[in-house]
Amino acid sequence: MGWFWNDSTASGPAKDPFHRLNPDVREFLLRESPLKPAPAPAPAPTASTAAEPALSSPSQPTTPSKYGNRYADIWEQYRSPHAQEATRSAQEQLSDIIQAYKWRKGAIGRAALENCADQQTALYNCYQNGTVRERMTTCSAYNHKLQNCYMTQAKLLRTLGYMSDFTRAPEVDEKIQMYADKMYQEEEAAAAAASGSGSGSGSESPL
C-alpha cells in the first residue's frame, strides 16, 4: 500500500496518528470515519504561571471522594479515559480510526440494502418465476435496478452523514436512513414520469 503513506519526513508531533499520512488520505479518513483523533494535550504551565497563587479559585478537596482515604489504593490505580487515550501510540489511534471507518462502511452497506428491499424481492421473484428470456439473461434488468438502488442509497447515506458520529442518538441515523430512501424514491418517480411523458409524446401522430 505505497499510496497510504507520505514519503516526506513527518513534520507533525509523534502523537498525531495522521502525521505520516498522505494529505488526501488524511482528509478522507477525517471525513469518513466516525472516530476522530484525540485532541492534542494542552501545554504544561510555565514556572511563572505555576508559581502564581490561585487567589480567586476555590480550594480543591484533598480527597477524591466523600469516603476519604478508605479507597485511596483504588483511586491510585484509576486512569481517566483521556489519560488512557494520551498514552496510546499514534499507530494504535490510527488503527482505531481505520476500524471505525470500516465499521461505518459496513453499516452504510447494510442500510442501503434495507432501503432496497423492494428491488431485492423483485430480483428473487425473477429468479423463481421469471420468464425464460429473463432467466437466460440471469434477470439482468432486475440486477441492474438493484445495483443502481444500492449505489445511489449508499451515496446518499454517506453524503447525509449516516453513522458519522458515535455520540448522537440512534434516532438521528434512523431518520437519515428514511430520508435517503425518500430521496431515492422521489428521484425514481420523477425519472419514470419523465420517461413516460417522453414515450407518450413520441407516440402521438402528426396532424
Can you describe what's shown?
The chain is an all-alpha fold and 207 residues long. Helices cover 60% and strands 0% of the residues. The protein is built from nine helices and no strands. It has helices at 23-32, 47-51, 72-77, 81-86, 90-115, 117-129, 132-136, 140-159, 170-203. The protein is elongated and about 80 Å long.
Write the layout of secondary structure elements.
Elements: H1 23-32, H2 47-51, H3 72-77, H4 81-86, H5 90-115, H6 117-129, H7 132-136, H8 140-159, H9 170-203
Helix pairs in contact: 5-8, 6-8, 8-9
Biased composition (Polar residues): 1-11
Region (Disordered): 1-20, 30-68
Biased composition (Low complexity): 45-59
Summary?
With 207 residues, the chain is mainly alpha-helical. The chain has helices at 23-32, 47-51, 72-77, 81-86, 90-115, 117-129, 132-136, 140-159, 170-203.
Number of strands: 0
Shape: elongated
Order of helices and strands: HHHHHHHHH
> How large, in whole angstroms, is the Cα Rg?
28 Å
Q: Helicity level, as a percent range?
A: 55-70%
Mean pLDDT: 77
What is the CA-CA span between the terminal residues? 66 Å
Largest sheet: none
State the secondary-structure class. Answer: mainly alpha
Strand content: under 5%
Keywords:
single chain, 207 residues, mainly alpha, 9 helices, elongated, disordered N terminus
